[in-house]
Amino acid sequence: MTDTKSQKHEHKTYQNEVQNDKVLENGLIHRIILPLPFPQVQQINTYIVGRKNFILVDTGIRTDESYNILLAYLTKKNIRHLDGIYITHGHVDHFGAAQKLIKDGIADNRVFIHENEKSNINNEYDEALYGNYLKRYGIPAEILEMMRYTSAFFDMMADRLDLDHASFLSHNMKIDYDGGTFEVIRTPGHTSGSVCLYDREKGFMLSGDTLLSRLSPNPLLDLNIDGGRRKSLVEYISSIDVLYNMDFKTVYPGHYEIIHDHKALIKNLLTFHYKRMMRIHNIIKQKPMTPYEITGNLFKKLQQMDVFLAASEVIGHLDLLEQHDMIQSFEKDGLLYYTAV
Ligand SMILES: [Zn+2]
Ligand SMILES: [Zn+2]
Q1: Residue 265 falls within a domain, yes or no?
Q2: 197-214, pLDDT tens digit by residue?
Q3: What does pTM read for this prediction?
Q4: Are residues 168 and 67 in the same domain?
Q5: In a domain, 234, yes or no
Q6: Are residues 232 and 118 in the same domain?
Q7: Rounded to whole angstroms, how far apart are CA atoms 177 and 25?
């Protein structure tokens, strides 16, 4: 139950949000900006697509605040039903409210997502496995504890999504919606099963977190069920290389502003990663270092969870350097060292 004061507050927030909402592509797309309680990113863009029948692309989290803004928007626009929920990738901000929308009868039980996102959706991670990796990289054990808290926090942002009836999206798959057709573009990197939805005829694409106007999408240290580590940044760079060569009039991202010049954005991203890669190369020219030591050299004064994010980035750039045969690694006393060649 909310008291009058917080109802007023919610109403005010909603008013502010709605002012930011836009009906786009001649009424075909509604963008709804929903709030997020994360320090790095405070809002998510969700999209309702269609003329008379509607699909939802990404859902926001399941908190009352976010959910009520979404429902109020549907009511205001007289959108009574959602035919299906498409999830660009399995992060809580993108799927958290899906199960609730189905349970409340607002959306059909038709969930579309890439199969590789199952472990993200289920918030599965093998702590022992991560522990081993972090240890080898020289990262202190407290970070693992932080990851446990973060994981529990993320769990609160989503109702467990039942994927028993889900349909799995694959590259080039065509999806007809009321008003057009999407092609599924697989863009692994940000997560393993990230997808973009591209309406080729109209020239727009919904990009999830693969392209963002303000934030470099952060590919995290990501272990596969089989214990191997995914080379997130290497995957990400080749995904955005592909997108660079495509033509989009408009890209609708999962956060922040709409993108009108994706080529300039991708060029900036590639330059950023290239520079960062060369900086790390310079750092390890001095002496062999563990990923954790490199992280400390690169970023001063990191807070706990930021260590994990920063180390993930460094590991990504080490993968890129390895891909270019610019470094070598060796193991000593259970630690992994990198050295420039
Ligand atoms: Zn994400
Ligand atoms: Zn996101």
Answers
A1: no
A2: 999 999 999 999 999 988
A3: 0.91
A4: yes
A5: yes
A6: yes
A7: 14
Q: Rounded distance, CA 196 to CA 18, Å?
A: 25
Q: Are residues 148 and 164 in the same domain?
A: no
Taking the CA of 40 as reference, the closest ligand is 2
CATH number of residue 283's parent domain: 1.10.10.10
* Residues 171-187, mean pLDDT to the nearest whole number: 98
| Total domains, the chain | 2
Q: How far does the centroid of ligand 2 lie from the alpha carbon of residue 38, in Å?
A: 10
Residue 268 located in a structural domain = no
Closest ligand to Cα 93:
2
CA–CA gap between residue 31 and residue 49 (Å, rounded): 9
CA 74–ligand 2 middle distance (angstroms):
22
In this structure, which residues have their CB less than 5 angstroms from ion ligand 2? 93, 209, 254
Model confidence at 21, pLDDT cuts 50, 70, 90, reads low
Contact 319, 166 (CB under 8 A): no
Q: How far is the CA of 190 from the centre of ligand 1 (A)?
A: 6
60 CA distance to ligand 2 middle (Å): 9
Q: How far is the centre of ligand 1, averaged over its atoms, from the C-alpha of 194 (Å)?
A: 8
Spacing, Cα 209 to ligand 1 middle (Å): 5
* Listed residues 211, 227, 260: the one ending a domain: 260
272 C-alpha to ligand 2 centroid (Å): 20
Going by their DSSP bridges, the two strands 250-253 and 204-208 should be labelled as parallel
CA of 335 to the centre of ligand 2 (A): 33
> Three-state DSSP class for 193?
coil
Ligand nearest to the CA of 254: 2
For residues 137 and 18, membership in a common domain is answered with: no
The helices-and-strands tally (H runs, E runs) of the chain is 11, 14
Cα–ligand 2 centroid distance for 209 (angstroms): 5
Give the pair of three-digit tokens for residue 296. 């400390």
Q: Identify any residues that bridge with 257 across adjacent strands, giving them in sequence order.
A: none
Give the domain range for residue 320. Answer: 127-156+277-341
